[in-house]
Amino acid sequence: MVMITPVDENDKDVFTLESLVGATLLKDGKGNAVSTGDAFKSSNASLVGLYFSASWCPPCQRFTPVLTEFYNVAKASKSGLEIVFITSDRNSEEFEEYYGKMPWLAIPQIQGSAEIKQKLSNALAVTGIPAIAILDAKTGEFILGGDARDDVMQAGGNAEQVSATIQKWKDAERHPISEAPQLMDSGAGARSPLSKFLSFMAKNPMIVFGLMYFYQWMQRKMIEAGYDEDKITTPPVVDVTPEDTEF
């Protein structure tokens, strides 16, 4: 597992943005780059949202336009919010097309970017997308995870609600990055127990086959015991559309 290295060895929970997202970021979909320090200095950001997303993810396609409205209103009011896109796109063409529609910063697809994404995913326990984590831009401390996605969906592009939401984030308690995995899994951004169960079953198909075999065995035994075959019900098929997409 790739780990994030703290800035100060005497304080394991102090990070700079460079140590989290790398020294260089893209500032637009045209490939123009900027140093991470300059990007956040010019925007005077006090909050940073790390946005994990991909063009092939249907829930991401629904959430990104809402986040764009939220961000544009926040930037217009100089609220101190910046967002960094962390892609899970499968190639540079997909990334460029998707990021070209976004108004915020992004980690470029260059050598080492996959390692940055991996260490952030590990540190924040991100297992599905879309996911957004709100951090303190000055210290790198964790503020909010799944609940931030709820907040964005509720506020949308409403200026009053956007302002109130960002102020709530600014006033919220800060937590060490080491506590992020427990705090990230909350709100709509969290994976539901059903989603986690289905993911587990998908990764362990032999359990599914075993349950199917057990059901068929029980069905035969019930018929042999004299039960009416027509009254033995078949388990219902449940159609579940998850609100996030697993990596």
Automatic annotation (TrEMBL):
In terms of SUPFAM superfamilies, this protein maps to: Thioredoxin-like
> Per the database record, which ranges form the Thioredoxin domain?
14-171
GO molecular-function annotation terms?
A: protein-disulfide reductase [NAD(P)H] activity
Q: Which UniProt keywords apply?
A: NAD, Oxidoreductase, Repeat
Enzyme Commission number(s) of this protein: 1.8.1.8
Q: Which reaction does it catalyse?
A: [protein]-dithiol + NAD(+) = [protein]-disulfide + NADH + H(+); [protein]-dithiol + NADP(+) = [protein]-disulfide + NADPH + H(+)
Q: Which family does it belong to?
A: Belongs to the nucleoredoxin family.
Record protein name field = protein-disulfide reductase
Originating organism: Pseudo-nitzschia australis
